[in-house]
User: Fold this.
Amino acid sequence: MEKKNEMAYPAPYTILNGCLYVRKTNKSGEYTKKLCNFTPYIVREVCVDDGAGISTMLTLGGNRENGSVLPEIEIKGSELSGFNWLIEKWGAGCVIEVGATVKDSIRHAIQMTAKNASRETEYAVTGWKEIDRQYCFLLPGDPRFTVRLEDRLRRYETVADFTIEDIRKLQILFTDFLPAPKEICWPLLAFTFLSPLNEFLHQGDCEPKFVTLLLGRTGTRKSTLAALFLSFFGHFTASDLPLSFRDTANSIVYNLFTLKDVLTCIDDFHPCGRKQEQDLTKTAQDILRSYGDRVGRGKLTADSKPMSSRRPQGNAIITAEFSPEVGESGFARSFALELKDGDVDLSNLSLIQRHAQEGLLRRCMYAYTQWLAAKYLKDEKARKQFVSLLSGQFVTYRDQFNKSGISCHGRLPEIVAWFRIGIEFYCRFLRDMQVATAEESAAMQEEFRSLLYTYAGKQAAKIREKKPTVVFICKFLALLESGRAVVVNRMEPPTFLPSNLIGYEDDEWYCLHADVAQREVKKLCEEQGELFTCTKQSLLRALAEEGLIETADGQNTKPVRVGSKTKRLMCLDKKKAKAIYDSCA
Assistant:
């Protein structure tokens, strides 16, 4: 039998024959009343900070009536008085006596033992936290703090030690031994070193609002590459990435809040079947909008009070075999990097993986966060200057891209700016640690800017292809080419119109029934598993704003002579439509 833990309860509670009693007084004098046949007490009180609020966890110990020791258990502080945990945790042999106030008396007796319990603070969130007026970077493995994450997030872990030689190796590995082409690896490296800056970018109202899509066919090792960069924050492999599209959408969103100021991966967008594709695409859209707006879902407690919103606080890679069909707006909240067969250098990949398993990348990330704290966060004045520096660089890099002449969606210049900030601070870190010269740092940043602009141009083209107007025109012309829809000569329409008539034409214009054309395009998109949510009125407005249709009298349709009759139709410019269709071919 395990040795009994001695516990003395303050008055009016006492232990008699291994059971908990309370002393009471009535007209006949003092007597003792049995409360339960065990003696519970608080071993440890833990304040748990999850980034949204603070809750209390209690570790309870106790002894059975026969003197044997009960196992230590952990419960929420809010669960203590209900005793619903008792049988599940300690078994049916622990019996509470009958009586209206017995449970409350036991609860009171347990709380009276709290003065003998140890007290700790535990964190259930990663990233920067102001503790005792000093910013500290929280990750499991740092002996200064207790950080506890659940389930697969437990693989996040730092190594609270480093040498200058570690950082020198890092610089050599990601300069001379890249596991994939620079246009893939360097954006991922920038994204990785951008992640610990999120808190202060948020303070400067310019927090990153995008995810990185890592696309590639099965066998291109996209998950392996993602795991390699996550290894700066923990020990990961392709088979144990922290999040997956096989998880529920709610659990993914919940964990994205917990993973503050670190990089994570939502792995394997690979739907099998139409129904699963719809479900996974909905999840992808929720994730992209969460990151694109940096807002969480509003929820209410059981008594209809608003709960703290759990928005994404770190950065995320999504691995996928193809880009989810989330429309122009959703795709614009991402930056796509595409791995092709043979892109990954297996020899270099294995080399860096060995170093990652030995903790090199984690040690370097620990060094990076320590460097940030020492250089930019030593006091309140320094923090404010740091926030101002970051927001200033964001504006500068965004404006520089806007002047580059690359026509693009409004979010893309911001994405380019965030990537450039990530690589800039990686280079600053190497320079301050004296493993790279100022000239080498400047050369890397300039080369990165050049390849990033090239990749951004391709991204801009992909976003344009997902514009509702472009999708409509391409699908409409595909309908005509396939014969699923037809247009007839508006000057000499046939007597009997075909059932799949969508409109009319002349040398310059497609004169379409707007509602029929929009409906047929939407139907074709749905058959192909693509998203087309644009209503008829929204479509007409967008086409008019881009000068693709002819307007009249302030309306986006116009009276058109068809044979001997006049109809109000949408008039689409043939030449412009053909140019858009050819550019997407």
Residues 300-307 have pLDDT under 50 and may be disordered. The chain has 18 helices and 21 strands.
